[in-house]
Design a protein that fits this description.
It is built from 7 helices and 11 strands. The protein is of the alpha+beta class. 12% of the residues are buried.
Length: 269
């Protein structure tokens, strides 16, 4: 075989290798799953550049960052009423090789979504609609706890479950709102009754205090002190003159023109 022909064949093989061989870039937050002749490697590929040779080695890139699954679900309650749930699940795959072997790339639809629906059915189906309205936090925490247990064995980690909306049938919603308003009015009336009783107790205590004070005053103040206090008060008026008399009867004269002297009776001793 001549040399030019060998060179041509070598060039042809090189072209086939270049165009038949590719590279796959595994970025941070992702892992690569290597598949060779139908066999999936148990060791995921770390971030970097990896060769991808058709029929010899194929590399799938899987996202292992936090992901969000949002769904609107209609779930029957314990009374058979349809409750609308708007929920969002934060998750991330942690055992990607196991997921790839047992489920496949569509694990979100096959495992995650179906488990989410069944878990809500289990929790809501045991409760009344009224209880769901009063305690939505319990609904979320109970469902999240069950999801963690069920998905942990499937290689999926639940980070957080959110219930962003709760929709009820209009008639049920109106009935619950009327009942809650009635309970609020009853509580308000009870509060007002307690307040009125408290105010009455305050008034009784105030009246008892006044009566006791009057009793103390009447039992301790003498007639002599009252006479002294009466005269002392009148002396503070500059327009009145006090005149003592032989009968020990106080007489007061006003300094204003046209006013006759007034004799005040002596207080009883």
């Amino acid at each position: 075989m001549k040399l030019p022909q060998l060179l041509k064949r070598a060039f042809f093989v090189a072209v086939l290798l270049v165009f038949g061989t590719g590279c796959v870039v595994v970025e941070d937050g992702t892992v690569g799953i290597s598949k060779s002749f139908g066999n999936i490697s148990d060791t995921p590929l770390t971030p970097g550049v990896h060769a991808n040779v058709p029929l010899v080695r194929e590399v799938e890139v899987w996202n292992v960052k936090t992901q969000r699954l949002s769904r609107k679900l209609d779930i029957p309650s314990g009374e058979g009423l349809i409750v609308g749930i708007e929920t969002a699940l934060l998750f991330r795959p942690v055992q990607v090789v196991d997921l790839r072997k047992k489920v496949g790339p569509n694990y979100i639809l096959v495992v995650l979504e179906s488990t989410l629906i069944n878990t809500f059915r289990e929790v809501i189906g045991k409760q009344r609609v009224e209880d769901l309205i009063k305690n939505q936090e319990k609904l979320t925490s109970t469902t999240e706890e069950l999801l963690r247990v069920q998905l942990k064995g499937r290689g999926i980690e639940v980070e957080q479950l959110l219930v962003t909306g709760l929709r009820l049938p209009p008639k049920v919603k109106d009935a619950i709102e009327r009942k809650l308003e009635s309970e609020q009015r009853a509580l308000q009336k009870e509060f007002e009754l307690k307040q009125a009783k408290k105010d009455a107790e305050i008034e009784v205590a105030r009246a008892e205090g006044v009566a006791k004070a009057q009793e103390i005053i009447s039992s301790t103040i003498s007639d002599s002190y009252l006479q002294y206090l009466w005269i002392s008060t009148l002396n503070q008026n500059p327009n009145v003159i006090y005149v003592a008399t032989e009968a020990n009867m106080p007489m007061f004269r006003s300094t204003k023109n046209g006013t006759r002297p007034t004799v005040m009776p002596k207080p009883k001793s």
